[in-house]
Specification:
Length: 378
């Protein structure tokens, strides 16, 4: 086997965590000399850097009157087969069981004797919100069983997968990662000037895809309580179905001049550079990539104690974790951080240290390489 691999990666190219992680994983592998081929319907949103070892292959979806919904999974399977044949791929790495693992399995079957192995990475929504729907249960379990290796981004997600589907196979826990050079503390590691000096407005931030599980209106309610005691501002980064309700609630509470809806943003590091606290009151989080990125920028996190978040954020050390829906409790913790410089600086430094020690890019790439080697040597 060659030391350098040719890997086909399939993912959603949107701003969600799975697309970010998949595309950044591809870039890191390309930097190590591997040939990476990303297969999707559009270039991944955060992948803005050119590298000669990183290639993008667009999936063309047939627009035919017979189909009420274009069969993307079939088009993806055909494209994966085409790329595997033309580029002599060693393996597929698909992110999300539905539809990417299904498409990968079809591509494998079409390869016949030339079949290459497939690694499936679970990110959460494919299991907790899609895979456990009755109509998707059988096919999700099928592709989990048929994958040559399965990874999950947290122990919590691994446990949920086993519980929902009763799978009797090994699932490797490989968490998400951050690069220390991309996510830095303000002033290149210095946090001496935070929290904000007197006279400057404290800034809270929320970043998500604004789906119902993110409890975006809770963010507005938390901010309202904080703002009443400590005049501050809130940056709402992202877009999705809950943006409208959140905007209406902000107006109803008279906060329209203090809440800024910024839409989807690529330069997340610059957002965190202006922020004092990240609010993440989600109903469920399989990992928590945004809290991890916040910690890497010395930004303490106030979030729900759910899913994989306790594996990222240590309650009382790198942030605070409270029950889902505890708006008053979360507001109280935010105010503790904004009024206690010693507590703030301690949590900011601890968060940065944890992010870069446990979730640094080198460690996580090594874990993925071990999985790749295991399926290729099998």
């Amino acid at each position: 086997m060659n030391d350098k691999l040719k890997i086909g990666i399939s993912c959603y190219p949107t701003f969600g965590g799975s697309g970010v992680v998949a595309s950044m994983l591809g870039l890191e592998l390309a930097r190590l000399g591997h040939q990476i081929h990303i297969v999707a319907y559009a270039p991944p949103a955060r992948l803005t850097t050119f590298h000669p070892n990183l290639h993008f292959h667009k999936v063309e979806v047939t627009d035919y009157p017979l189909f009420e919904y274009p069969p993307y999974s079939l088009s993806l399977a055909s494209k994966l087969l085409e790329v595997a044949s033309q580029e002599k791929l060693h393996l597929f790495h698909v992110h999300y069981a539905i539809p990417h693992a299904v498409s990968g399995y079809l591509a494998q079957e079409m390869q016949g004797e030339q079949r290459i192995p497939m690694v499936t990475t679970l990110h959460g929504t494919d299991i907790t919100l899609v895979g456990n729907m009755p109509s998707f249960m059988p096919i999700t379990k099928f592709v989990l069983d048929k994958s040559d290796a399965v990874t999950a981004v947290s122990q919590s997600l691994k446990d949920e997968t086993i519980k929902f589907f009763g799978v009797d196979r090994e699932i490797h826990v490989v968490p998400n990662f951050v690069r220390s050079d991309l996510f830095q503390c303000p002033d290149k590691g210095g946090i001496d000037h935070r929290p904000r000096p007197p006279g400057e407005t404290p800034t809270l931030v929320h970043i998500s895809n604004f789906r119902p599980v993110k409890r975006v209106t809770d963010v507005i309610k938390i901010f309202a309580l904080v703002h009443k005691k400590i005049p501050s501002q809130l940056l709402m980064v992202g877009d999705g179905p809950e943006r409208g309700p959140a905007e209406r609630l902000a107006r109803e509470l008279g906060l329209q001049d203090s809440v800024y809806f910024l839409g989807e943003q690529l330069d997340i590091n610059s957002i965190f550079a202006t922020a004092n606290v990240l609010l993440q009151p989600s109903e469920t989080e399989s990992f928590g990539l945004t809290p991890l990125e916040a910690m890497a920028t010395c930004t303490p996190v106030v979030a729900s104690k759910v899913g994989g978040l306790p594996e990222v954020v240590i309650d009382g050390e790198t942030g605070f974790l409270l029950p889902v829906g505890d708006v008053e409790g979360m507001a109280g913790k935010v105010m503790d951080l904004l009024t206690d410089p010693q507590l703030y600086l301690k949590m900011a430094a601890s968060g940065r240290e944890r992010a870069l020690s446990l979730f640094n890019v080198q460690r996580i790439i090594d874990l993925y390489m071990q999985v790749y080697r295991s399926v290729l040597d099998a």
